[in-house]
């Protein structure tokens, strides 16, 4: 669909409508700070309070003389302060720890003595409707506060600025009809879910002794709680849930929440593959895998998916959020955020310790990244591997980081499955009402070690003595239901026997189970596939556009609306682009990019570009967003095009989280060109986990294709060690099995074609582009209009700008990127007529076939040089050396090997000294061209290897 609005940033709720006001306009929750204490202030206003007390006393037949009213008002103030402190700090005295190891010292300010009510428990005080009381005995008020705020659920919510949100939670928590109440049928269902969780873990332990499973043992209350998320979420409009979690409990969630067949999991435990053998790939351990399914509660079907996750804790978090955002866009749910719910399940140590958790929290509510609130569920083991909480964090709870986005936090005792289920129900109600993050912190324990082979008593002997003596959740809960008369004594044992019998049947079925399909090209991915012929699939793609479309996009991106007060420099830039279309020549990088984006949008694709400065461009080159200089209204030319949707966002200052988000978005939507742009390519190493574990290996491990594009500014311009290198060598080291594409492109038209190729092929592979800096405006790095049309396409290798007969070439310099122009300029300056510069535009998959064909025509070739700007131990040299040698052999130049010309090996990617940089650059160019005076001693020859 097209964008009708001229505006760049939508409102906080992420509607497509305009955002009023200038760039410093505050998000909604900041506007509420001024009335953060309104609920208390009104209650304690002396004049209003005395009037209210007098009126209430008269109705109740109590004394209304001035002295009595004065005393009653004073009592009321103390009572309301008592209530206030329980709302703020009651969670600190809640019964949360199933093991009873956590100190439960009552904070002094929660006692009646501290509030001056010692010995006055039977005095009636006016509280004006709190807990449904007008007048209440101090004793009864105190009991209600203790019961509500210090039971099995502790609520933290008074840090929230928005009064409406606080009152919503307060009403839900304090109203008798909203508290932990379940029907007998509901209680039996909760017990059944707990038993399934427990018996499943016990079955695995018996059948696969000593095998790692990262069991849920001790946290089984999570199973009915997650089912409550589906049930109550569905009743509140949720139609899709996207889960992310690490190892612990994953197999249990896959089986008992997601509905993955038990026999399939047993098959995997026995060493079988989750997919047919012919699919290939490396596979992954079973507790990293994901799945998708549909479940029906009360006639409402909810689609669920669990995203695969590596061993890197919390790495999946931004992926889930990005996928959720994409699914909301696909379902046209971005205005309400009602149908798609992201759910992230965390460990306590990981939630407190992993920085990506905050990066994800920080994105909540941010335009372009808002998912309408995520439900965070912390499995609080009260330990991380062998590390105690006091060494894991410096705050009382693992959830404390979430206060930074004013998320409500429900701490709950994991030994009470009703309380945990209630917490999930309340969390869903809050999220669906306010579309904001909410956190459940379930205190439980880990019955075994970090994995089932560990001995936890090495480091926590007292804790594990307590755990070994502690009854199981199902036993505690079953005894309670027997006492309540909900079940008879034999009910729970019968459920266990029936479920184990089912598991035995599934165990036998697993012996003959064979996977018959891999569902990675279904749904929105239908019609796409895995390329059978990588060479042919990349070559046979028509990416040129018709002149009519070329001209139409040109008009769109060079027309400034009459009512837009554009910056004077921007006007010159736009006028310059208009001249390109008029003359048909001189097209620069940014204009070619806009042509690629615009043509894809017009053809019905989506384009989503995000990065820290993507609207304007780090180097003030893109100008995808035009800002009115008087009102700061935003105009995006490409949003005016029909059919598809163009989005560009200046992202939060995050690499890890934002790149993960974009990967998740591209995972869900192959019909949108999703691009993440680093401010400088060097900064991509802040997202190395996403690159290594997801982008480079996700398809091989999990059969999850992805078409994400990484734009990484790269090139040695004398700007120092952190503004030169996108670490090309790291990407090339990750290349294998046709997993990703790595390009270092030198012309605007070739950039145009590679972007279009990314969407027009029948498959998706991540694309890493070393984008230029100085080439953005280099006079030689220009393209003509004809290069975007006709029979033009992406060129994996590019010829010299100077036409040289291949047969006359004696020295061939191969290179990629910006150094090619410096080589050509110096070669022409020196008048070298037998030296040819050939650019390798796509480094992986390496274009060995066309390169060999070109080399074969160079019958007089004497030496081949690989020239790069990067130090010898960086850049492409170690990757391309063997590839070039193979191409030489295929071309008949047996025994010839390429020679290196570039900087010496270095621990730092580049120097920060301008003079030294220039000397190094001149030296490597001279060496490549044989102008360094050392060519004879280092010259390659046709000697045998």
TrEMBL record:
Highest taxon of source: Bacteria
A Pfam match: E1_dh
Quaternary state and interactors: Homodimer. Part of the 2-oxoglutarate dehydrogenase (OGDH) complex composed of E1 (2-oxoglutarate dehydrogenase), E2 (dihydrolipoamide succinyltransferase) and E3 (dihydrolipoamide dehydrogenase); the complex contains multiple copies of the three enzymatic components (E1, E2 and E3).
InterPro entries xref list: 2oxoglutarate_DH_E1, DH_E1, KGD_C_sf, ODO-1/KGD_C, THDP-binding, Transketolase-like_Pyr-bd
Described function: E1 component of the 2-oxoglutarate dehydrogenase (OGDH) complex which catalyzes the decarboxylation of 2-oxoglutarate, the first step in the conversion of 2-oxoglutarate to succinyl-CoA and CO(2).
Keywords, comma-separated and alphabetical: Oxidoreductase, Thiamine pyrophosphate
Region Disordered: start-end pairs: 1-30, 892-915
NCBIfam families, per the entry: 2oxo_dh_E1, PRK09404.1, PRK12270.1
Reported cofactor(s): thiamine diphosphate
EC number: 1.2.4.2
Signal peptide region: none
Enzyme class: oxidoreductase
GO molecular function, one term: oxoglutarate dehydrogenase (succinyl-transferring) activity
UniProt keyword Cell membrane, yes or no: no
Domain (Transketolase-like pyrimidine-binding): residue spans on this chain: 587-778
Organism, as annotated: Altererythrobacter litoralis
Identification of the protein by name: 2-oxoglutarate dehydrogenase E1 component
